[in-house]
Amino acid sequence: MNTVKPESIALFCLTPGGVLLAKRLAAMLPVTCFTSEKLLEEGFLPFENGFANAARDAFANYSALIFIGATGIAVRVLAPLVNDKFCDPAVVVIDERAQHVISLLSGHAGGANTLARYLAGMLGADPVITTATDVNDMAALDTLAFQLNARMTDFRSVVKIVNQMLVSNKRVGLWWDDELAQDVSHCDRRGFITVTDLNQLPELDALICITLRTDLPELPLPHWKLVPQRVVAGIGCRRDTPFPLLAELLSRQLEAQRLDPLALKAIGSITLKKDEQGLIQLASCCRVPFETFTADALREHEHRFPASSFVRKTVGTGSVSGPAAWLLSHGQLLGETLREQGVTITLGVSH
Length: 351
Prior knowledge:
Layout: E1 9-13, H1 16-26, E2 32-35, E3 44-46, H2 51-61, E4 64-68, H3 71-78, E5 90-94, E6 100-105, H4 112-123, E7 126-128, H5 132-135, H6 141-148, E8 150-151, H7 155-167, E9 172-176, H8 181-185, E10 192-194, E11 206-210, E12 223-228, E13 231-237, H9 243-256, E14 264-270, H10 277-286, E15 290-293, H11 295-299, H12 309-315, H13 321-329, E16 333-340, E17 343-349
Parallel strand pairs: 1-2, 1-4, 2-3, 4-5, 6-7, 9-10, 9-11, 11-12, 13-14, 14-15
Antiparallel strand pairs: 5-6, 8-12, 13-17, 16-17
Helix pairs in contact: 9-10
């Protein structure tokens, strides 16, 4: 999944008019501008081994690409690289007179639609958006998922089903847990029908449930869970604790709080554990970052938790899992700490 980051936008221009427009854009937002040797100006980088190679390299290393010129040129250069709308970078094309800003590739997942609208607003141009949900003035499930930083089982197939239902004027409901109301309030929900009570459903063809919960009540229609990544886990363990044990205990701790494993956002521990293979494998398996904190940073919060003099002597702080979860969640902890077989796990929730 791509997220457009302003600091990782590559811009390509091939004509004097394109260079002038690129300079306008570079003055308004952070972009890395590429052009040919003969058009090179201060602040621009030359194409390495030609335009096509430079563009293909940027496709693999930038979150978004802007081409100033003909759409066909961008298509021909990038066509062999296009792989997956959930992974490919956003690609936007602007004519050198800045009349049109075209969202060409990864409109939803990559953020090209948002970027095209933003650039068009800056330039006073017309944004050209062709995705079906957008032209029908509706939200899209994949856009909603990225706005919420949420995951879903069988995400690709469900996105296709639900977005097709939306543009076919089917009635798709949207329900969310009360604790997620503030997050959802900032999302684009056009086309979805708000559901406030799962026990009193309006007439619907399908339902999306935004929740951190493991289980939902039985529902009499097709429905899918969209799970925001909000849960963090601080973990302390002995050296060389095996991955299967860590995975089993984390699963048990999540289940005890009735939390869907997809809600996991990050795993944290002490810096001394940055090379701990069991923790690294656990984070990789859960598809979340593994973040570490220095003993000094953890020690600032160890007074909030039961401390061990042995642990303090060994790693420099009397508690690891609690302070790590505290830092990851900004103090929003969930339930009791699990302590078993030399492993401690503390959960928190981060909004």
